[in-house]
Amino acid sequence: MMRLAVSAKSCLWSQILMGSRAITGNSTNGFASTVARIERRGVSAIHTFKAKAMRMDDDERRFPPQHQESQPGKEYLMNPLPQFSNPNYKPSGKLHGKVALVTGGDSGIGRSVCYHFAMEGATVAFTYVKGVEDIDANDTLRIINESKVKGLGDPIAIPTDLRYSANCKDVVDEVIAKYGRIDVLVNNPAVQYYVYSYSLEEVTEERIERIFRTNIFSYFFMTRHALEHMKEGSAIINTTSVLAYTAILPSWLEYISTKGAIVSFTRALALHLVEKKIRVNGVAPGPIWTPLQAAALNDEDIAIFGSQVPMDRAGQPYEVAPSYVFLASGQDSSYFTGQVLHPNGGVIVNG
């Protein structure tokens, strides 16, 4: 009779791969009872990971200790810097002549999306938080200018607070005044906070409102205003997360809730716009090394970041951005709407 070796990591993996479903029924090899014990031990497995992280030598850590005290995080302060570009990437004009608006495009996945869109021939506008992300925004403008196709429009960086509808309308109006249209909208901004006590008491009303306004309200607002200027063949791409499907980290409760909302928003909006022939899809990244992590995680979590997925490492932004290129390209993804791509390091989500 084969028996399964159960370790802290296998406990967590089982949580990831099987979600939170209860598994019942008889089994001849004891698998069902093993899984039941694993699921009950999900949170303790996470704590075991953290205890192990505290004992790691410097050369065993995935990333060095670091934590930024404010949201949103700043890419220029990270060690190592996230990798937005892949020297082996070969652009082929997939987005030539299109105008793309990327919210939260100053750093992380957003910066890589801006870079890849520019490489593929798009004219790019992106938003950032004024006074907080200025350095990252200036770096991204330089990156886009250096990589954009000659003869196309210059990129613009728009400082704003996307939590409020009026600000989102101002962003759209500025892009229309500059370029005359929007062909691709990428809804991307996000914040998350760590719940250290695993208690709902720590989740204040103010924090809930900030997270929901940033992570999902802005998606509604930007889409509503941009749609007035989007025509047949346009594309909307929403950034969700693998955690919308697995929800294994109780310390990110509000964040996970918003990412689940984004999945439902994407599916419903796709059906709402299908007759207008505007495609709506999403991308659900796994653990990607971005400023979001540096601003939300503590040293123990930074040490093991990426170890929760089968590929046993964190991804880089450049490994995610091509998913956005694919969904933005009418030639490549013309039969895709209401779908979500999963660059997540091997996590099976079946959704």
Structure characterization notes:
This protein is 40% helix and 9% strand. The chain has 351 residues and is α/β, with parallel strands linked by helices. The chain is globular, with a radius of gyration of 21 Å. It folds into two domains: 48 residues, no CATH class; 267 residues, Rossmann fold (3-Layer(aba) Sandwich). The chain starts with 7 loop residues before the first helix and ends in a 10-residue tail after the last strand. It has twelve helices and seven strands.
Secondary structure blueprint with pairings:
Blueprint: H1 8-18, H2 31-40, H3 42-54, E1 99-102, H4 108-119, E2 123-128, H5 134-147, E3 156-159, H6 165-179, E4 184-187, H7 205-226, E5 235-239, H8 243-246, H9 253-273, E6 279-283, H10 291-296, H11 299-304, H12 321-328, E7 340-341
Parallel strand pairs: 1-2, 1-4, 2-3, 4-5, 5-6, 6-7
Helix pairs in contact: 1-3, 4-5, 4-12, 6-7, 7-9
Organism: Helianthus annuus
Region (Disordered): 58-82
Keywords: Oxidoreductase
Overview in brief:
Helices cover 40% and strands 9% of the residues. It has 351 residues and is α/β, with parallel strands linked by helices.
Distance N to C terminus: 33 Å
Write out the strand line-up for the largest beta sheet, numbering strands in chain order: 3-2-1-4-5-6-7
CATH class of the largest domain: Alpha Beta
List low-pLDDT spans. Answer: 1-54
CATH superfamily of the largest domain: NAD(P)-binding Rossmann-like Domain
Largest sheet: 7 strands, parallel
The number of helical elements comes to 12
Shape: globular
> What radius of gyration results from the CA coordinates?
21 Å
Q: What is the β-strand count?
A: 7
Q: Tell me the series of helices and strands, N- to C-terminal.
A: HHHEHEHEHEHEHHEHHHE
- Structural class, from secondary structure content? alpha/beta
